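Researcher: Last one for today. Full complex below.
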Amino acid sequence: MDTLKTKIDFIIEIDKIKKIFRQTRLFDNSRHENDAEHSWHLAVMTIVLADYADRSIDVLKTVKMVLIHDLVEIDAGDTFLYDKNKQDKKNKELKAAERIFGMLPEETGSEFHALWQEFEERETPEAQFAAALDRMEPLMQNCLTNGFAWKKHGIKVHQVKEANRHIENGSRELWNFAQKMIDDAVKKGYLEK
Amino acid sequence: MDTLKTKIDFIIEIDKIKKIFRQTRLFDNSRHENDAEHSWHLAVMTIVLADYADRSIDVLKTVKMVLIHDLVEIDAGDTFLYDKNKQDKKNKELKAAERIFGMLPEETGSEFHALWQEFEERETPEAQFAAALDRMEPLMQNCLTNGFAWKKHGIKVHQVKEANRHIENGSRELWNFAQKMIDDAVKKGYLEK
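Model: Here's the assembly. Have a good evening.
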């Protein structure tokens, strides 16, 4: 097996993530964001905000995790945070992980698959911090776009607090900041009580 | 100074990179790629291809470098690889680096500014490997889109070999692979002799 060619084929395949669009929009509200842009933003956020993790994190591991956490959406599509059908999503993503990480040589493929599972399980310090950032970015996007995705889907403040609460498991300071953003969004009328 | 607020403001500012479009197109030729997508792709490539660096690299440092290497284009814009006016570009980018990295608290801002300079100078193992990937991705894009940007700008094979030659400084094996891609592009008529 030509290892380099195999890796290049994977690099070509994952280009498709640039066409998976999310519910939230760029901070200037000009258009929806895609998964590649979102993953890039989380990676930079990991580096800039690492000091705010409550438990010490391996920064490289966390960056790897956020860079690849949405690759399964190439096959499974984007699921809105407030969607109900979580089991169907889970099954699709498991199959997607097998196929996509399975394109890589064994060592790298297993590493990526394990990182993705760790992210999904949200138990380690790295996964909890990554999950916190994965909530912070769309929260900021909703606040800066007058509540675009919230209004579109009729989301209320108690749902936002519930769905974003696990930011606290990664960073109490980020959760404090997030709560202020949510309260401010309610005051401005971007989010219904 | 509220450090967290300052960092969040930086995170909001750099969203603008998602609107800086490059000369090359997605692998499926559907549209041009933007700098956030490009930076995400280089970060994943760094992780997947790190073993191909001829000199040992610090992977986290290299990933940081590629994630932030194009932030200056928020102010300076994208410059096509084969453009002539390099001095004007350089001056604009220096000013942009001052402003954009200057938004961060001193420690992180200095680190990012130094990483960007190191990338530009292409002397360390990390910068040479990052620069190799920064050439590999658009080369692959041109090869997979029937030479889109090459044809548009009338670029010839000697220019492509000259502009991409420094891939060899980061990885001889990647340069061998790249040369085969270029030869294949000529054979298929995507690139003129």
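The beta strands of chain A are 21-25, 32-34. Chain A has eleven helices and two strands.
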